[in-house]
Please model this.
Amino acid sequence: MRPFNAVMVWPRKAVLCALALVAVCFAQNESLLIGRGDQLHIQVFDTPEMEQHPRVTDAGTIPLMFVGEVKLAGMTPGDAARQIEEVLRAKHLMLHPQVTVTVEQYATQNVYVMGQVTNPGAYPISTPLSVVSVLALAGGLADPADRHMTIERRSDASQKIGYFLSNKSEEALSSDVLVYPGDTLLVPKAGMVYVLGDVARPGGYPMTTNDSQLTVLQALAMAGSANKTSILGKARLVRKTSSGAQDVPLQLAEMQQGKRPDIRMQPDDVLFLPFSWMKNVVVNAQGIAASATSAVIYAH
Model:
């Protein structure tokens, strides 16, 4: 068979421009490896008779036209293209082959969704999906979910990609980051802050705002604001540090008036609003009265 050498009849500048265009059109994420069962699209520049759409066999090979079996599993599309070029030269079929390889369809594999989702588990997919689509398979985020999540690539367990799920629809629906078959999506639990003392609804609150952050005033609002009997001037922020608990006095009244900057809270921070002296007296008096009444009833 006469070696293909169609590239040589083209002007060099035209060839380079065409190859650049092909490279742009078929560029892929080179961190992803070709796997068994994947369907490929193989093109050889200016040689349409060699274009084919083979599926990778269980042995990790493809039946390449005019050549035979070529092993491509475990390679990136770019490495696979160079491998085919070497084979074509070695078989004396082409002098200057220019090959592109793209993955048309990934083999059906499980994507693993773990952590704070409604239904964690493994879900079969055959094509790359957006993070939102994968979360939908798992029933969406659970209430305490952190919006900062991690994707571990199937091709390299050490490759971890951070993703932030925004509350803004145009950002959340962006497909800049995709989840591929075999990947693992991990949704961690959001940090908690605690609001205690003389507030309407004392308790713990997850940091699930759009930026996964909470300020002192935001946490106070989530707790239903301070009661009228609280002492805003003696509010305190208790924070754990490596050297122990740090007690930070707060001037909440001035913060609410904009005279002092709001403070960003950290996970496990405790915001405490003390009761007023008068409320303590009333509470204690009620307790004493209840005890006295119980004693009288018991005596009779």
